[in-house]
Amino acid sequence: MILFIVIFVALPWLSMLIGVVVRRRLAVSLWHMMWHGSMTELCARWLWQWPQCHIGWLCALWVICMHREPAVRLSRHAGVIFLLVQNAGSHFAISLGFVVIVQCRRMPNHTESFERYFHTHPVCMHEFGHVLDSRQWGWLYLPVIGLPSLLSAIWEGQRQDYAHNTFWTERRANRLAARRLQSRGVVWNDLLFPRDKKRLRGKKAFISGFGLNGKKSCNLWQICFSFCR
């Protein structure tokens, strides 16, 4: 019981306090975004999706504390918090509840709206599919979707002939996102993010994950250290 209180009550509030001190503006913005929405959205976020949302905002806060503001952009779109981290040498993304963290080579400029950037950024749209998965599965999301997806990404780093983007959790996220964004006129890229096995014929050799430093790699220590740069 004491360990539970320390991990899930004391640690988050201590982390938020440190974040406000270290990166005041972004940490406060993150706090406001966390509690923005209707009562139904808040209940779905903090009750139905509590485990992944809790981990998600702690990870976002940690990333904010590790970077200076010009290299980080915090945006909210479709009820999702997107944390963009600029890194020219790597590309990585993760979705935890209503928080999506993306390492990207190109950041939206000051005159470009995030909505426009989102609809032209396949990785953001794919991670949005995982957000929709989280809303469907609730507390079961991490063991049913999150853990298999993570293991698949790690396996991609060990096998050069394996593409994480073809794994069933990724294709499921692609289908959910494509279905939701179809009304916005988005044309889905099945070459990079296939929705079903039929679209993989003759294309698997061209599909690769977004590993670090341009390589097919998903070493967890590399990912952690890359976010600390």
Q: What would the keywords be for this entry?
A:
9 helices, alpha+beta, 53% helix, 4-stranded mixed beta sheet, 10% strand, 229 residues, globular
Structure description:
There is one protein chain. The chain is α+β, with helices and mostly antiparallel strands and 229 residues long. Helix content is 53%, strand content 10%. A four-stranded mixed sheet has the order 1-2-4-3, with helices on both faces. It starts with a helix and ends with a helix.
Give the % helix.
40-55%
Strand order of the largest sheet: 1-2-4-3
Assembly type: single chain
Major sheet, described briefly? 4 strands, mixed
Spatial separation of the terminal alpha carbons: 36 Å
Element string (H = helix, E = strand): HHHHEEEEHHHHH
Beta-strand portion reads 5-15%
Low-confidence stretches: 202-228
Give the mean pLDDT.
77
Compute the number of helices. Answer: 9
Q: How many β-strand stretches? A: 4
Which class do the helix and strand fractions yield?
A: alpha+beta
Rough shape? globular
Rg, alpha carbons: 17 Å
Characterize this entry briefly.
The protein is of the alpha+beta class.
List the helices and strands and how they pair.
Blueprint: H1 2-22, H2 24-34, H3 39-48, H4 50-66, E1 72-77, E2 80-86, E3 92-96, E4 99-104, H5 114-119, H6 122-137, H7 141-158, H8 168-181, H9 220-227
Parallel strand pairs: 2-4
Antiparallel strand pairs: 1-2, 3-4
Helix pairs in contact: 1-2, 1-4, 2-4, 3-4, 6-7, 6-8
